[in-house]
Amino acid sequence: xxxxxNYFWSSSILTVLSISASLLLSSCxxxxxxxxxxxxxxxxxxxxTEKVSVYFIFSHVRQMVGLDAIPKLENKxxxxxxxxxxxxxxxxxxxxxxxxxxxxEESSDVNNPLKRAERDSLMRSxxxxxxxxxxxxxxFTNYFLGYLFSTVSLTVIPVPYSQExxxxxxxxxxxxxxxxxxxxxxxLTNWSxxxxxxxxxxxxxxxxxxxxxxxxxxxxxRQIESEGVLKL
Length: 232
Prior knowledge:
This protein is α/β, with parallel strands linked by helices. The chain is built from five helices and seven strands.
């Protein structure tokens, strides 16, 4: 049987174009879970309490479980864009916050004794230190197999990719004594599918991540405020 070469090449090109168009048109719509371990107690404000100085130490880490042996500190290009604005908004929950300073941990700090010494000095010179560690984790197997299945199906079948977020917060006094410890969790799920291009503009991943970070900080600071932890 003789094969028509022109027909073969035309069919191949059409197939490639169809796959490419499906992948280009597909999009991800994101959703987030409710905040886990959130504060359920009475919300109190302490506007007349003496102002305190606070040193905020932030650690942003990510891990692809199954690919990364340990969580890795994010560099400045990987960290959430706009985090400073989120922090400025969330700190309004602390009514007696006076002078404060911030520090972001970098993996290069291990080779920078001067920077570490400055960090330790600022911890001693402030009334309190609040260490905030934000972790983002996703499973390599789920991510890889989900992406593969989505590609094979030309993104017609929706495929979810989940990422777990956790924030761990420790409050220490100027003597480095632990006076409070808090944890919050949330899940971000991305759905990838060709028709989600019509949903994506209203549920982008970046906005959902910002919402998770905002809820993390505001809820934690609200509990710290309500429990009167930052009092001299």
